[in-house]
């Protein structure tokens, strides 16, 4: 030990104030917030995969399965799918505007996304109310329980997305984002697109299969 | 209609392309959704077999999902870290299906009993079958 101490010469061995090893960032080569949201989205993929997987197993194992088009309003839901896709497009516009530092445009596109997303939720609530009046409740049979589980969890995600977008909008209006610092808008956008992506798959599997 | 790739215009600080024509992607998504709904309705009207009907529907659905992930979510322009976070998930999904599908393939009896049926906990046999009860509403055109 004494030999090691004696061999240590601060003038030679001490790292320079800006030695490269201290400039090394141990984090991943991506913004931490973006890394976190993608990690979260990976868990969300697994969550919805579990729901869809359970649905496929239950449907495959059932002796009979009703034709969804005889129980559900496919035309209305197809229109609702167009609505959600449109909201994804407005969200892309909002993110692009944020990256350019155009706060007015960012706010307008975000507001459009919020309104269109709310319209999607409104149509889904209308659908649920109609089904309720027809006695189609989750406990009636396995078709309805899986239907409500998948569309209900997705609808909840849309509601969370709308609330998230409202929160981001108020920050935009308060000038919290700039052309260089707009990660908050981008994160909300990633979540919103993911919700859209899940619906694209759910619509096919639940309504068209 | 040219591919959205052909409309790449912007570049990030590393010189990589980061911009795309969001309008073209939107048109793709709308057209694909219309084709998908048409495919589903036509398949049921003309009585297509399941592989053809479901195969077409899955093609449209995954193509749309791919467009959203790659362009709207910017996955195409992300680095290896983000891609390596997301790309394994489809394989993990396959693991889930791999574990549960034997349950379906090995069904000697129907796995699904109508809700409310009572089973003997020792033998697993149905003691009280609610099949008829739950199938009454189906006679109204529910499609069972």
Characterization of the model:
The complex is a heterodimer of chains A (209) and B (144). Chain A has 209 residues and is mainly α. Chain A is built from 9 helices and no strands. In chain A, helix 7 runs antiparallel to helix 8. The longest helix of chain A has 32 residues. Chain A is flat, with a radius of gyration of 25 Å. The N and C termini of chain A lie far apart (74 Å). The mean pLDDT of chain A is 89. With 144 residues, chain B is mainly α. Chain B is built from 5 helices and 2 strands; from the N terminus they run H-H-H-H-E-E-H. In chain B, strands 1-2 form a two-stranded antiparallel sheet. The longest helix of chain B is centred in the N-terminal third of the chain and has 24 residues. The C terminus of chain B is likely disordered. At the A-B interface, helix 4, helix 5, helix 6 and helix 9 of A face helix 1, helix 2, helix 3 and helix 4 of B.
Quick overview:
The complex is a heterodimer of chains A (209) and B (144). By secondary structure, chain A is mainly alpha-helical.
Low-confidence stretches of chain B: 7-16, 137-144
Shape of chain A: flat
Ranges of chain A where pLDDT stays below 50 over 5 or more residues in a row are none
How much of the sequence lies in strands of chain A comes to: under 5%
Average pLDDT of chain B, to the nearest integer? 74
Mean pLDDT of chain A: 89
Characterize the largest beta sheet of chain A: strand count, sense, and whether it forms a barrel.
Answer: none
Distance between the termini of chain A: 74 Å
Elements of chain A, N to C (H/E)? HHHHHHHHH
Question: Which two chains form the greatest contact, residue counts included?
Answer: A-B, 59 and 54 residues
Percentage of helical residues of chain B? 40-55%
Structure classification of chain B: mainly alpha
Q: Specify the number of helices of chain A.
A: 9
Give the helix level of chain A as a range of percent: over 70%
Radius of gyration of chain B: 23 Å
From the N-terminal CA to the C-terminal CA of chain B, the straight-line distance is 43 Å
**What's the total number of strands of chain A?**
0
How is the largest sheet of chain B built, in terms of strand order?
1-2
